[in-house]
Every structure is written in structure tokens, then in C-alpha cells.
Specification:
The complex is a heterotrimer of chains A (291), B (370) and C (263).
Chain A (H helix, E strand, L loop, with lengths): L12 H26 L3 E3 L2 E3 L5 H8 L1 H33 L3 H12 L6 H4 L3 H5 L4 H8 L14 H25 L3 H9 L4 H29 L3 H6 L7 H9 L5 H26 L1 H5 L4
Antiparallel strand pairs in A: 1-2
Helix pairs in contact in A: 3-8, 3-10, 8-10, 9-10, 12-13
Chain B lengths: L6 H12 L3 H7 L11 E6 L10 H8 L1 E5 L5 H9 L9 E5 H9 L31 E3 L2 E17 L25 E4 L2 H11 L10 H14 L3 E5 L2 H9 L5 E5 H9 L4 E3 L6 E9 L7 H11 L2 H11 L6 H5 L3 H6 L11 E3 L6 H13 L1
Parallel strand pairs in B: 1-2, 1-3, 6-7, 6-8, 10-11
Antiparallel strand pairs in B: 3-10, 4-5, 5-8, 5-9, 5-10
Chain C lengths: L1 H32 L16 H7 L2 H31 L7 H13 L2 H15 L5 H26 L3 H9 L4 H30 L2 H5 L7 H9 L7 H26 L4
Helix pairs in contact in C: 1-11, 3-6, 3-8, 3-10, 4-6, 6-8, 7-8
The chains are: A mainly alpha (291), B alpha/beta (370), C mainly alpha (263).
Chain lengths: 291, 370, 263
């Protein structure tokens, strides 16, 4: 690799990036090349055999099912990401302003619900959101409703709530880590200069925490894009996202080749969205810390 | 791996040894004389329900073979591990659904099998397999490749306090499609099962051989009926939870769910759909390049024995394919467990995979998306 | 002035509400673990502690905890180290940086089951025997690396290079700059990242099952238990794990606040 620009923070960026790059090349890119290869294979009743066929991709483009699901999934992913951002940000802000003891305590408090195992989490939704679950029972007892609300569970709304819940830590943590670095003095200075609290927030805090917020959005967006367990558990009869389409090829279908092709399409779309957003927000510039 | 045995296993082992089972039992297991070999350990990947803790001492006693069970997670996982490159030499014994194994296990042509041709002289109990499941013995060109060792069926589990058992609708697959219990039904999120049962409900007699156009018709029917269901389940625990909490009153399900719910006091039965019951079996197989095929086959033989079969039913309610094991229960006991599939005058249909599974999956996804 | 006060009160109330919502499933889990029912879920059938008794009898459970902890700590350590180095490197411009970025985030987009099958195929073709500290470790580091990077990097990018430049000018070697200037500034963030990575590894399941040897991790153990039968002791097991981790965290918290910090 050429084009090293020396100077600035500790030099030899390539040396620093090398170990991780090596790992990625070996264990991420190499399998990914395999994935692309498999997407051209052919699967059938007797299993999967190596081949070079465009039949998988042809099917994806010919049947509107896949395109429609992709759009639906993109929509849900975007909504979930924005919702997660809005919900997590104030929490991250609050925690970052605490004294050290309280801060570490709150961070640990934040982590604990995520140590509830994913297998087990599947069992708790029904008791909370079901027809005879906690929320409905409470609302009934308070007289707010007459009959249980069906839509709390097995609906697209439930899926979004579930996704946001499961991925909330992915959004809170990076924002928290960047907010932490904002010196109280900077804020005081802004206030002394006469800025109203809202102005301080939008002009000082938000821009400084942008990298963290963006990183959180990238994570949550990509995770919700590939989600399939939560939509299946909470989505009800129409709880299908693109990830389910992929999963079903590996489960009942035994159609690894088609599953691989669908996966490649999803990756391509995801990267395209990131690239487009990146151009709009100058992603790598922001993450590049060229402040 | 830990060599520590559970306390419970040790206690049960002592009881077993102390019992009268010793000499006579071994003979009843139908073992050939050559089983005085020294103790061997084999690696197995199969549902631990088919070889529960309480039965493992029996296996050791009978065959001098310890079975080390790798973590079993799903039928798919087993087939994936068998068919992946190098997969035929990782384990000595594997178990998965016969219908899923058939295609990739046997391969398209002779010589493409991923399974070890079984030496039936090591498995004399194979002769005692229930006639209804002899069709699930995978064989080709005179060689046997897998044997069904336990079976089950698909039907509708329903709450007898909400859904009357004697109703004509109840004893049909239409129960989970009809408007009558709208909003209180659940399907399984499974292309194979749902399309097959919908096809049966629509009157098709041989759903595994559905024509392409018929599959689309069934898809349209399912899309239309989707409005009647509350949700679809994928896992056992999910399904049982749905019935237990009262969220649904009738759902596509397994007899093991009926057993679990009844044990907890819920008044639940499975129906006997007049269109057909869908039966399936678990196959025991030895992968083609297994390091220890002989002891593996002897273990299969034990699993097919009357004694093992009887204990298996008692421990897990999974019925073994051993005819002798079934015969050791009275008709009433069998019926209590929901295993009397011959006694209701309904046809039994093999829950095989259709050749066009691809299209079924796509149709099902279209149903899900609608 | 009153507006300011309102904002503070509203924020506090919001955070409280947020935490309540966050903890609801855990509370339900704890409740379920005392439910005298063979089926996991409500209705409530009475109070019992016998599920907790059952889990003490299970060496497989203890083994799974040890395995999960082992894989978790090792993979989180490797992942955090790689992410830190990578993050420090990313502060520069270099060719192919954008490509590398996409390469880093791509694994997130692959649904778990596809990723698992792919790794199974990959390792099978390479002839690697599946085991805890080979294939499973790789699968876990793979999984948590992008997240470790994305969590830590924004923090690293905000590091003021003035101190480093000064140290460099005074003749410090790269390692000294790292150990004396950079690390003291980033170690809380790195620790938080490590904890996060550990959490991710602990919960990772679907990719793990395809590359497993004979050992189980906790999620695998749970899964095997619920695969086709009732395991009423499952909520008790999950609660026990949470309790263990809470205790360890309390310990960590005590240690952290004692050693002090300039953040």
C-alpha cells in the first residue's frame, strides 16, 4: 500500500491498522468471497453443488416479493434507527453529566438487562405485551380500556419496539463515550457567552457528539436491516423482514445458494445506503475526526 | 469434556444394575453374542430427547459403548454438519428427520450417499420396526442407510374448554383456517407444514406431489386465511406458551405439546383430521466415514429395542418405532398419550418433503409478506 | 431559570422511565423463575424456588458458564485490542481507508444464520476442526470486532493530538507515546468497549452453533434445553447468570472508582 501521510498523531497508520486488517482479510473477506461464490451455486433437493449460474439472482429480480420486502425492511430499519437515536440520546447525555461514581454505576445499570440471554428473552414478550399480559392487565384494571389491545404484540409496531429495545445499548454507548469527552468548561464558556441552553445543545453538544451518534446509527441500522428473530417473534402473521427471507432458505429450504444470493443483495444494498448517506453526511470525514 | 456424571444418573444407574434387568434384559434387547468388546466412546449428534439422561446407562450396559452427545440445536444444523465438506467423518452417529435426510443423505445417484451402509446383522431389532414406518427406512440398491427410530405426527392442538371436541370442524385441518375461531388461532412458521395442511384442507389427496399451479392456489388460500390467526410460532416453547396463556385456542402442533400442556393441567387435546394425519420419523444414521461405525450400529440396535422404546415413551412421550415397545402398552395407555394413530379411521400421510421445496418456500414467504 | 429547572426534572423523569422500560423484561424473567409452572410464562401457578435447586445439580450448566466466560474474555480482549489499534490507525488518511471501513461493517449485515452456515462451510473447506478456542473464538471476534471499532473509534477520533506531538517532539518513541499519553486518556473507553464486547460474545449464539465442537456456551446450553421440551428451570438459570454478572460488575465498579480517574 502506498500513499502514507506521516505526521500528526502517532505515525505508521498502516502498522496500526495491520493486525485488524489481517484478521478481517482472513476471516471476514475470505468467507465473504466464498459467500459470493456460493451465490452462483445451485441448491436442490439433493443438496448444494458448485456451479456458475445466475438463476438465483434472476429469481430475486424477477419476483417482486424480494424487492418489496427490501423496501419494507429499509423502512423499518430507518424508523428503528431514528427512534433509537431519539430515545437513547437523552439517556447518554444524562449519564455523561454525572459524577464518576454515579456514572460508572449507571453504565453498569445500563448493561445489566443485556445480560438476559437472547434465548430467554423470547419468553418474556408474551407476559408483557400479550392479551393477558402485564400492560393489558394494568390498562384494564385502570379502566383505560375495555378489551385487551391486540396490537401491542404481533404487529409491525411491536417489531420496532422490540428492535429498538434489543439494540438500545448499541446506540447509547457510543454517544455516551463521545459526550463524556465534552469538557464541562466548554459548556460553561458557551453559557457565559450568553447562549441559551437549547443553543448550547445544538451548537456545541450535538456537533461534538456527532461521531458517536453516527456510529450508533450505523450499528443499529445495519443490525435492524438483517434482523430476523425479532420480527418473527413479535411481528405476527405479517412479521416478515428481509432477514427472514434469508433465514428461511437455510432452515426449511436447504437452499444455501439462494440464501447466499439474497445475503449478497442485502449487503450490496446496505453498503449502497451507507455510501449514499456517507456522501450526504460526509461520513468518513465525521468519523475521521477531521474537526 | 467433563467426565463427571450427574448425581441423578448415578442413582438411576445403581437402580438399574440392582434390578432384574441384567441377564434377561440383555437377551430381550436382541443382542448378538459378540458384545464382550472393551468399552468404546462414540460421538453423536442427535436430539437429546431421543437419548435422555435416564436411558444412557441402558445403552452402556447393553453395548459397552458410551455416547457423547454434541450439543444438538436443530434438524437443519445436523444436515448442515453432515453435508459440509468433511462432515461425514466428524460423528459416529447422527439423528435427524427422515424427510429432511432423504434428499441430501442419499444423494441423487448411487454412490453419492453420505451415509454408511448399515450392517443389519448388527441391528437385528430393525426387523421389529412398526409396519407404518417401514417406508422411512432409507435404502438403495439393496443397502440400508438409515432406520427410523422414533416417530411423531402433525395435527391441531386445541383447548377443549373453548373448542368442542365433537364438532365436525374440530376434527379437520380446516380448524386452523376457518373463520369460526378468528383471532384465536396460530400456525407454524413453516412452509412445508402449512402448505401441506392447507392443501389437505382444500381436498388434495397427495400434497407432496402438488403441481406448481396448485401450490400457487394454496398460497392464495393461505393469504386469504391469514386474517384469522394471531401469530405463527417457530419453537416448541413459543407454541406451548401461546396455548397455556390462553392467547390462542387452537394451533398447528405436535403431540409432545399436548403432553406438556396436559401435564400442567390444561385441558388440551389434539385433533384427528379426517383429511389425513401427517406422520414423520426420526432417522438414526451412521455417516459414511464415521470413525467407529460398529459400536454406533450397536447403539442403534439398542435404541430400537423394546425395553429402550418403552422407557423412551415413559420419559419423553416420544414413541419409538419398535413394534414390541408399542405393544407393551395397553390400548388405553396409548390413547392417553395421544399415540393411537391407527384407532381413528383416518388416513396416515407421510410428511415428506416435496421435490419443489424451493417453490414452496417462496410461496410461503409470499404468504408471510402479504 | 424555571425553564432550565423543567428541563432537568423532565430529563430525570425520562431517564427513570427509560430504565423502568429497560428492566421490565428482566423483572418478568425473575418473576417467571419463581413461577411454579412447568410451562414458561403466565398464568401464575404459585411461588416456588425449586427451579433454582435444579440448576445447582447441573454440571453441564457450570461448564457452559466457564466456556462462555473463557471465550468471552479472550474474544473481547482480542477484539478490543484490534479495534483500538485500528481506531488509532483510522485517525490518519490512507488509501483504501473507505474500503476498509466497509469491510469492517459488512459482517453486521449478514443475518446470523447465513453467517453461521458460511463459517461452517469456510472452516470445513479449510479443514479446521471445530472447537471452542479455534472456530468459536474466530466467530466471536468476527462478530464483535465491528462493534468494538464503531463504539471506540468516535471516542479515539476526538483525542487531542497536541499532547502526543509534544511527547514526540521531546523524543518519545511510539510505544512511549501510546503508553504514557494515549492509553491513560482512552482506557475508560477501552474498558467500556471491552465490557460491551464481552456482552456481545456472551449473547452470541446463532453463529456459534454452526462452528461448535462438543463444548457448549451458555446460549447454546439454553437452546439445547428448549429445543423441543419444557425446561421450566430456564428463567432461573438466566436469572442466576444475571446475578453472577451483576456481582462481578459491582466488584468492577468498586475497583474502578477506587483507582480514580481523570475523565
Amino acid at each position: 500500500m502506498t500513499g502514507i501521510r506521516a505526521g500528526g498523531p502517532i505515525g505508521r497508520p498502516l502498522l496500526l491498522a495491520a493486525p485488524a486488517s489481517l484478521w478481517i482479510a482472513l476471516f471476514t473477506l475470505a468467507p465473504f468471497v466464498l459467500l459470493v461464490a456460493v451465490s452462483f451455486w445451485v441448491s436442490g433437493y439433493y443438496g448444494t453443488r458448485p456451479d456458475f449460474s445466475l438463476s438465483n439472482y434472476a429469481r430475486i429480480f424477477q419476483n417482486e416479493l424480494y424487492g418489496l420486502q427490501l423496501l419494507k425492511t429499509l423502512r423499518i430499519a430507518l424508523v428503528s434507527t431514528l427512534l433509537a437515536l431519539v430515545l437513547a440520546y437523552p439517556v447518554a447525555w444524562f449519564i455523561s453529566r454525572q459524577a464518576l461514581r454515579m456514572k460508572t454505576l449507571l453504565i453498569l445499570v445500563l448493561f445489566i438487562p443485556f445480560w438476559v440471554n437472547y434465548v430467554v428473552r423470547a419468553f418474556v414478550w408474551l407476559p408483557i405485551l400479550g392479551r393477558s399480559g402485564a400492560i393489558n392487565s394494568a390498562l384494564l384494571r385502570l379502566g383505560v380500556i375495555d378489551t385487551p389491545v391486540d396490537g401491542l404484540l404481533y404487529s409491525e409496531g411491536a417489531v420496532i419496539v422490540g428492535l429498538v429495545y434489543v439494540y438500545t445499548l448499541f446506540m447509547t454507548l457510543p454517544i455516551l463515550l463521545t459526550l463524556e469527552r465534552i469538557d464541562e468548561n466548554v459548556l460553561d464558556a458557551a453559557r457565559d457567552l450568553g447562549a441559551a441552553p437549547l443553543q448550547v445543545f445544538f451548537r456545541v453538544v450535538l456537533p461534538l457528539s456527532w461521531p458517536g451518534a453516527l456510529a450508533g446509527c450505523v450499528m443499529v441500522f445495519l443490525l435492524t436491516l438483517s434482523a430476523y428473530v425479532t420480527p418473527q417473534l413479535l411481528g405476527g402473521p405479517s412479521g416478515l423482514m428481509f432477514g427472514n427471507l434469508i433465514a428461511s432458505q437455510f432452515l426449511g429450504g436447504n437452499n444455501w445458494a439462494f440464501g447466499a444470493a439474497l445475503s449478497c443483495v442485502l449487503v450490496a444494498v446496505a453498503l449502497a445506503v451507507l455510501a449514499a448517506a456517507g456522501r450526504w453526511i460526509k461520513l468518513h470525514r465525521v468519523l475521521g475526526g477531521a474537526a | 469434556m467433563s467426565r463427571i456424571r450427574d448425581r441423578q444418573t448415578n442413582q438411576k444407574r445403581r437402580r438399574l444394575l440392582g434390578g432384574a434387568a441384567a441377564a434377561g434384559g440383555l437377551a430381550a434387547l436382541g443382542l448378538p453374542e459378540s458384545v464382550r468388546a472393551q468399552s468404546v466412546t462414540i460421538q453423536a449428534l442427535l436430539n437429546s430427547l431421543l437419548m435422555p439422561e435416564s436411558l444412557r446407562p441402558l445403552v452402556v450396559e447393553a453395548t459397552n459403548t458410551r455416547v457423547e452427545l454434541a450439543p444438538y440445536t436443530s434438524v437443519t444444523d445436523v444436515v448442515a454438519k453432515l453435508t459440509a465438506p468433511g462432515g461425514t467423518s466428524r460423528f459416529d452417529l447422527m439423528g435427524t428427520l427422515t424427510n429432511v435426510l432423504r434428499g441430501p443423505g442419499l444423494g441423487e445417484r448411487e454412490g453419492q450417499e453420505k451415509l454408511y451402509p448399515l450392517n443389519l446383522s448388527l441391528i437385528p431389532n430393525a426387523a421389529g420396526i412398526l409396519p407404518a414406518f417401514k417406508r422411512d427406512i432409507l435404502a438403495r440398491a439393496g443397502k440400508t442407510y438409515s432406520l427410523p427410530m422414533a416417530w411423531g405426527y402433525e395435527s391441531v392442538i386445541y383447548n377443549t374448554e373453548r373448542v368442542p371436541a365433537e364438532d365436525s370442524l374440530t376434527q379437520s385441518w380446516r380448524l386452523i383456517f376457518d373463520d369460526k375461531y378468528k383471532g384465536r388461532l396460530a400456525w407454524r412458521d413453516d412452509a412445508h407444514g402449512m402448505i401441506m395442511t392447507a392443501a389437505l384442507a382444500l381436498g388434495h389427496k397427495d400434497p407432496a406431489k402438488l403441481a406448481g399451479s396448485d401450490v400457487r392456489e394454496v398460497g392464495k388460500f393461505l393469504i386469504d386465511r391469514k386474517k384469522n390467526i394471531r401469530t405463527m410460532w417457530t419453537k416448541f416453547g413459543e407454541a406451548v406458551g401461546l396455548m397455556a396463556s390462553g392467547e390462542v385456542w387452537a394451533m398447528y402442533g405436535w403431540v409432545s405439546m399436548r403432553a406438556a400442556l396436559r401435564k400442567q393441567g390444561h385441558k388440551v387435546l389434539n385433533n384427528w383430521p379426517r383429511e389425513s394425519l401427517l406422520t414423520w420419523s426420526f432417522a438414526a444414521l451412521v455417516p459414511k466415514d464415521a470413525p467407529r461405525p460398529e459400536p454406533a450400529q450397536r447403539v442403534i440396535n439398542v435404541m430400537l429395542s423394546a425395553d429402550y422404546g418403552r422407557r423412551l415413551v415413559e420419559a419423553t412421550n416420544y414413541p419409538s418405532t419398535s413394534a414390541a415397545a408399542a405393544a407393551s402398552f395397553s390400548k388405553q395407555q396409548w390413547a392417553e398419550r395421544g399415540l393411537d394413530i391407527d384407532a381413528h379411521g383416518i388416513p396416515l400421510y407421510g410428511f415428506d418433503l416435496p421435490p419443489a421445496m424451493d417453490q414452496w418456500v417462496e410461496t410461503w414467504n409470499t404468504v408471510r409478506a402479504a | 431559570m424555571t425553564a432550565d429547572r423543567w428541563v432537568v426534572v423532565a430529563l430525570r423523569a425520562y431517564v427513570a422511565l427509560f430504565l423502568v422500560a429497560l428492566y421490565a423484561p428482566l423483572m418478568v424473567l425473575v418473576a417467571l423463575s419463581f413461577n411454579d409452572s412447568r410451562i414458561i410464562g403466565f398464568p401464575w401457578e404459585g411461588f416456588t424456588a425449586r427451579w433454582y435447586g435444579l440448576i445447582l445439580d447441573s454440571p453441564a450448566f457450570a461448564e457452559a458458564i466457564v466456556n462462555s466466560a473463557l471465550v468471552g474474555i479472550v474474544s473481547a480482549a482480542i477484539g478490543t485490542a484490534l479495534a483500538t489499534a485500528l481506531g488509532l490507525g483510522f485517525r490518519h488518511e490512507f488509501r483504501l481507508k473507505k474500503v476498509l471501513f466497509y469491510a469492517i461493517v459488512t459482517p453486521i449485515v449478514l443475518p446470523g444464520i447465513a453467517g453461521g452456515v458460511l463459517l461452517l462451510l469456510f472452516f470445513s473447506l479449510m479443514g479446521v476442526t471445530p472447537s471452542l478456542l479455534t472456530t468459536v473464538l474466530v466467530a466471536h471476534v468476527n462478530w464483535l470486532l465491528p462493534f468494538a471499532f464503531l463504539v471506540l473509534y468516535p471516542r479515539l477520533s476526538r483525542l487531542d493530538s497536541a499532547l502526543e506531538d509534544a511527547a514526540r517532539d521531546l523524543g518519545a518513541t511510539d510505544w512511549q507515546v501510546f503508553a504514557r499519553v494515549i492509553w491513560p486518556a482512552i482506557w475508560p473507553g477501552a474498558l467500556a468497549t471491552f465490557l460491551f464486547a464481552l456482552t456481545l460474545s456472551f449473547d452470541e449464539f446463532i453463529r456459534t452453533i454452526f462452528v461448535l465442537g462438543g463444548e457448549r456456551t451458555i446460549p447454546v446450553h439454553f437452546w439445547v434445553l428448549v429445543v423441543e421440551e419444557l425446561t421450566p428451570e430456564l428463567p432461573a438459570m438466566a436469572t442466576a447468570i444475571v446475578v453472577i454478572t451483576v456481582c462481578l460488575s459491582a466488584l468492577a465498579h468498586a475497583v474502578l472508582t477506587r483507582t480514580g480517574n481523570r475523565s
